[in-house]
Amino acid sequence: xxxxxxxxxxxxxxPGVLMALAFVALPLxxxxxxxxxxxxxxxxxxxxxxxxxxxxxxRDEYFHVIFARxxxxxxxxxxxxxxxxxxxxxxxxxxxxRWRTVSIxxxxxxxxxxxxxxxLGWAVLLGNEGVINKLLLGSGLVNEPVKMMFTFTGVVVxxxxxxxxxxVLAVWASLQKxxxxxxxxxxxxxxxxxxxxxxxxxxxxxxGVLSGGLIVFALAASAFATPSIIxxxxxxxxxxxxxxxFLGNLNWxxxxxxxxxxxxxxxxxxxxxxxxxxxxxKQVFQ
Amino acid sequence: xxxxxxxxxxxxxxxVVFMLAPLVMxxxxxxxxxxxxxxxxxxxxxxxxAAILKNDDFIDAFWRSVGLGxxxxxxxxxxxxxxxxxxxxxxxxxxxxxxxxxxxPLMVPHVVLGIALLRFLTHIGASGTMWGLTAAHTVLVLxxxxxxxxxxxxxxxxxxxxAAESLGASAWTVFRRIELxxxxxxxxxxxxxxxINSFDELTMSIFVASAGTQTLPVKMYNxxxxxxxxxxxxxxxxxIVLTLVLMLVLDRFYGLDRVLAGKP
Lengths: 286, 264
Fold this sequence. Notes:
By secondary structure, chain A is an all-alpha fold.
């Protein structure tokens, strides 16, 4: 049977497609090309194509430090999110229906609250006069305030808070496919909690951990608000550097080049991780 | 099912404290009567809530963000409903490409979208305009509506629509009387989640918004860059309470876990 071409789906999707082409695809292409033109002092853009912006990024020690910091931060945040997000998703899946609803609101609800508000909360907690330092000083554990605002550690803690719900969601989704009888079988054969977790539960949720990890990694590497507020001026990461190049130095071509390099590294690392994990845990992906 | 081990419950308790601590802290410090953020403090007052009402900048930015969120969510819904039905019910060449393109704002970092739109809107002479910001937010939140519409439409028995057609209903009648009512929970849930995402968006807006079109998150960010004072805490607390109310609404007619997970 070969009916005449049905044009209806094209008409139905056309308005959205045109909007996405005009306001996502076209601007991205323009930005990619912008990175290939020279910056003229005073904020202009030259018209001779060049790779000078990329050469600047590749050669300058200053940018190396920023890229290294950004990706060290993203990897650490991803690992911590796996470390606490996987067990939390497991607990959620085992709670009774009523407690689960309450817990879901608490664990996933913050995703709906502005990241500025959540980061502000951490600024209040982490400051030298903040609650954590007051508690530490009061308990006599430390003699002077521990510096946490404007530090790498502070940014990592706040980013984990902002991003861990994504990990919990992804793992929870794959836990729902898990057959509870496999755990019971292991337990009846004498396996303890850690063995069940390590040998039975964890391998089965690897696809969820992978997809959650990829989301967290990409979002952590491109996070702006949290590193900017908690990290401050001196602890720069790539997104805050792009912001400074665009709105501070008005060097749009260099900012565009930084953005291109950021996206390429995130893509390459994500694809590499994807392939590595799928090969390493082949059986659970079948 | 056996009981959850103590150790895991203790971990769960710590996790809940970790998730709530910064939000609770913001709410607590907003009730100080001092001119600076301190915890613990002696006198509790509504001083910083009264201060919001006197601060026209924050009030203006709040209403601007509400208007922007409503416009962007509505436009995104108008685009996503037909597209979502086509994607859920038709197999056509290029379907995957269309879906990928419409969902692409989820994959591109907001900072990259921000500079791309700043460059593009400057190019067409629309930088700093409200309609440029609205268009940007519309494409940004479209994926959230689309996912829920596709999910709602996929779980829908097409025989009902065919039955109506065979009884002589026009395509428009089938859509209005049968299809739309059946996918309405998905559409409404999608609209709300799109509104929330537009309302909260900072990173892209900070590039696209000008001094005259500052949204509330941009206004708050610029304020934080200068000083962190109790006024920010009281504004944040209002936002937390409003979000809680929206969450309850969302949970009522769609189910919070379904919306957050983007699943049918």
